[in-house]
Structure formats: C-alpha cells, structure tokens
C-alpha cells in the first residue's frame, strides 16, 4: 500500500485542501499504520513543549568544547606515539650499522654503497621472480581459484578502509 502522500500530510504542519482531507480520512479508516501515525501526531501536538533547563546551551557548548579538546589531545598523543614507534623501528634496524659508522668514513661509505647495491639486487631479483610467476602461474592455477586470493585482498582492503574510517570519524551527539 502506498503511504507516501498520507504520511507527508500527517507529518507536515501544512493546511490541507478539502479533497486532501477527504482522501486522508478515507485512507485512515483503512490503514492501521497511518492511523497509528495520526494518533501519535495528535498526542504529540496535545502535549506542551518542554523548554530546556536553564543554562542548557552553555553546558552543551562547554561539553562540546571539552570533547574537541580531548579529541585533539588524543590525536596529538597518537601522532607522538606513531613518531616514537617509527623512530624506534628505524633505530632498531640501524643498530647493527652504528658500530661500522662510528669507525671511519671510508668504512661507512663502503657499507652504505654495499647496502644500496644489496637492496637494488634484491629488488631486481624479486621483480624477475614475480614476472616468472606471472607467466607460469596462470597455466597451473584455474581461473576460479584466482578468485580466492583476489577476494582475500579485496576483503582485507575493505576491512582496513572501514577500520580507518571508524577510528578517524568524529563521534556524533552529546554524551
């Protein structure tokens, strides 16, 4: 059953024409849903509007400002913790190299060049292995089985996106 024009007429405080009133009364006799909505509207209009307690807006603004300050503080501590963890990770990764760097400039320059060559050779080897796997794997794996890893990656990306969204969105309402 189509309730749309009748719900709009019941919920809006606009005056109705005589044809609209007749249609609405006819519909209310046959529709329990709209009848309950009309009774609720009449009950709400019969009640006196309660005014907020004195100082409500000031308390609301103060609470909102306190929430903003708390959120800024949480964000600041999060950034500080993130930076310290990143620095700790870098220090942990570079700790074995610190002895060699402290010895002489020639040794640490040689160490850095050797490390960069190692990284470049490793990346080149990984790229070559990836190309070989991309050429060989489709012959061994049926196309239906490719859906499993692709779905897993897509599901992980969706989960990650939703988690980031939930963690970063501002809370709504007043506590």
Question: What can you tell me about this protein's structure?
Answer:
The chain is mostly helical and 175 residues long. The protein has 3 domains: 4-46, no CATH class; 56-103; 104-169, no CATH class. 83% of the residues lie in helices and 0% in strands. It contains 6 helices and no strands. It has helices at 4-11, 18-30, 32-46, 56-103, 105-140, 143-168. The longest helix is centred in the middle third of the chain and has 48 residues, at 56-103. The mean pLDDT is 85.
Give the tags.
175 residues; mainly alpha; 83% helix; elongated
Topology, pairings included?
Elements: H1 4-11, H2 18-30, H3 32-46, H4 56-103, H5 105-140, H6 143-168
Helix pairs in contact: 1-3, 2-3, 4-5
- Based on CA inertia axes, which overall geometry fits? elongated
Q: Would you list the SSEs in sequence order as H and E?
A: HHHHHH
- Low-confidence segments, given as residue ranges, are none
Which value, in Å, is the CA radius of gyration? 34 Å
* Mean pLDDT across every amino acid position: 85
Termini separation comes to 40 Å
Q: What is the oligomeric state here?
A: single chain
Q: How many distinct beta strands?
A: 0
Helix content: over 70%
Structural class per helix/strand content? mainly alpha
């Amino acid at each position: 059953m189509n309730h749309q024009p009748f719900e709009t007429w019941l919920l809006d405080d606009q005056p109705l024409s005589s044809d609209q009133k007749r249609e609405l009364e006819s519909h209310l006799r046959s529709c329990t849903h709209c009848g309950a909505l009309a009774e609720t509207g009449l009950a709400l209009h019969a009640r006196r509007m309660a005014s907020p307690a004195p100082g409500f807006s000031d308390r609301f603004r103060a609470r909102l400002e306190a929430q903003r300050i708390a959120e800024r503080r949480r964000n600041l501590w999060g950034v500080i913790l993130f930076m310290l963890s990143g620095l700790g990770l870098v220090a942990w990764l570079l700790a074995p190299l610190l002895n060699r760097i402290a010895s002489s400039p020639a040794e640490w320059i040689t160490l850095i060049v050797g490390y960069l060559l190692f990284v470049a050779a490793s990346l080149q080897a990984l790229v070559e292995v990836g190309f070989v796997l991309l050429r060989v794997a489709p012959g061994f794996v049926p196309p239906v089985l490719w859906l499993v890893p692709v779905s897993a990656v897509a599901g992980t990306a969706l989960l990650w996106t939703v988690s980031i969204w939930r963690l970063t969105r501002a809370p709504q309402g007043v506590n």
